[in-house]
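Why show two proteins at once? Because comparison is the fastest way to build intuition. When a single record is shown, students tend to memorize it. When two are placed side by side, the eye starts asking what differs. So, the first record is below.
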Amino acid sequence: MNDVQPTATPRLEVRVATTIGAAWHALRDKDVIRQWHAWQTGELEAELDSIYFTDVVEDEATHTLIPNGGDRFELHEDGDGVLVVLTRAPLSGDAEWDAYYDDVTAGWISFLQQLRFALERKPGEARRTLFFGDRSTYSGTVVERLALDGAGEPGSRYTATLAGEPVEGEVWFRSEHQLGVTVDSWGEGLLVVAGTGPSATDPTGTSMALVSTYGLADDAYALLDKRWSQWWAENTGS
């Protein structure tokens, strides 16, 4: 999958091993969208309403969706799978809003990979998430401090110790500023470490870690939260 491109309207693509009907449903059913878009917060429901169900232009016949904000989704049959294409809206001209343009694009890269994971590995399953972010630490640095920089190519197996927990799983995806790995012990869960590279506005780059879990007992989920909160505080500027 391509990472952020130096154009006014980056084009992001991900191939999903699913049917075009299932992929379209994942863009139009809120119960499915909340299993892959962003992470769980008190504002998630309002965010989903705003993006996917307010001032939306959709064409089910061509499987094209333009959510509020002007980004454009297109679904194309691709052999035995579906190519999901997201073309970002142009810069708005509002300097305050456009300062976050690269962050939003980076977020879409993560979310499209979460969409692929939800459809290929977790159809119909509910997730619980943890989110950590820092605007003074580069995502590549976080990957190095997690000792994941030596993980192989997408599709290969890996073993590591993440925030004090021995884990294993599969490398899910890589891009210039992002790494996603599955974690077997999280039911099989997904860890995405993402961010933006150093720039004039963010000299150090940015980072976030998004943990998606499935079927964990409350005590196991609470322990995971404790481990990651402590690790993040000790290894980033947050």
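Second record. Ask yourself what differs from the first in the token line.
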Amino acid sequence: MELRQLQIFSTAAKTLNFTKTAVELGYVQSNITSQIQQLENELNVKLFERFGRKLQLTSEGKAFLKNAEKILQLSERAKGEFSPEIFGGILNIGVAETLCVSRLPQLLLRYRKLYPRVEIRVQTENCTQHIELIRNNTIDIALTLTKEINQPDMEVRALCGEPMAVVVSPLHQLAQKKIVEPKDLSGECLISSPEGCGYRPIVLSILKEHEVTPSAIMEFSSVGARKECTICGLGVAILPKISVKDELERGRLVELDWKGPSFGVKTQLIYHREKWLSPTIKAFLELCKSLEDQPVKNGCNRL
């Protein structure tokens, strides 16, 4: 017994005409007759009978119609659970802390308006941990900040470039320099993210390439802590510009005119190549395309 047969039977029970049933469902009449006969053979009953040229349901057909309609209704309800308007489920996202407080809120606001029944769980971890969490199927997808990711088992989508800002307190001595090169950071305290952060190795690689040795490195896992310590004048920080936008506008931090190499940091979306993309995940991936509005090299300034 197939759903198609039940649909044909239900329609025929309403039209009481196999020709009209064929037209309504887009089949040839012989197919309608054949499917009804197969259903009758399987049930071992007669569902329709003819009185002259008039088609009628048998008493068995009337009884079966109630069950057939219940099955069809349950089928539609089951399919409806995965329609964009009402589907639910759980979405597990790993996000770099900077993106969690900058780009993610507006993204989730739009997602929640479209899919209010989805339960969203967010973990803030570094890039290395995100990849392991994806491999362990602890999270579904991740948004991270780093250079291009080269992992054979990962699908990677570079969404947009993230301009980096070299920032100091307005009272810091470097705030008065018109141009700042890597060598100018020699002997300065570098306020840095911890190991595992996507853009930390990029920063350290540039300093090493130019033989720059900071006087010290202060590590903070919190972006907020790195900003506040920089504001207090403890040293120099290199952060995604989007994370210091407010502090720059309010004059609490000063962006130095960096003339060193480009940092090449990008917001990237990653998930496992073998991951089954549920409607819940596909919907989020679709919304993330809004970050691709501008070319990667130009950064992205809006959602």
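One difference worth noting in the second protein: The domain at 3-80 is CATH 1.10.10.10 (Arc Repressor Mutant, subunit A).
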